Amino acid sequence: MTEVSSLTGRLLVATPALADPNFDRAVVLLLDHDEAGSLGVVLNRPTPVGVGDILASWAALTGEPGVVFQGGPVSLDSALGVGVVPGEPHDRSSPGLKAARGGPGETAEAADAADTVVAGDGPLGWRRVHGAIGLVDLEAPPELLAAALGSLRIFAGYAGWGPGQLEEELVEGAWYVVESEPGDVSSPDPEQLWRAVLRRQRNELAMVATYPDDPSLN
Length: 218
What we know:
The structure is a single chain. This protein is of the alpha+beta class. It has a domain at 11-78 and 99-116 and 155-217: VC0467-like (3-Layer(aba) Sandwich). Helix content is 16%, strand content 28%. The chain has helices at 51-54, 107-115, 165-171, 182-185, 193-199, 205-208, and strands at residues 11-14, 27-34, 37-42, 46-50, 67-70, 74-84, 126-130, 133-136, 151-161, 175-178. Strands 1, 2, 3, 4, 5, 6, 7, 8, 9 and 10 form a ten-stranded mixed beta sheet that branches. A hairpin with a 2-residue loop joins strand 2 and strand 3 (37-42). The N and C termini lie far apart (40 Å). Belongs to the UPF0301 (AlgH) family. This is UPF0301 protein JO379_002605.
């Protein structure tokens, strides 16, 4: 098998050519990527559902907008928390999230992955994914993390790819791969995140941010 270079912690930014409506202008934070597949959450799909409506104990720790985000089309009945702990080093030394990667038969594993966050080199109830970004154990008492969390976002569902599937999509030109920033997780204006991430790139991708919403107008 061809060795896969891990993209864990990076962003997948949908290209204008990506036709799947689930990922139209999506910005996906990859929580795990290796030979077994990939798992991430879409950062710019807010829903009308308030965090307080489903996870009242965590509502006070979520920023604006204080709603649940649709993390992807898989396992929409499971919740996953992504939190930023200020001051944490930016490295890629943490092991990825070993979880289900798409497919209807993997829903139970995905729920387990969202719930099984172990203590590591960070506050109890938080596990580093990349740098200051990590997974939050939503089964833990919120007060364990209240003082440490700089931001928290709750996602329903996730985006998953089987072995080699994401690599195929990258070859097809469906995604741009760029570095993530902690602020991407808690953007107060998620509808503008696609343009904002592209605009900060110091190459031709900055020009892509100017593309109209309707590609036929370009």
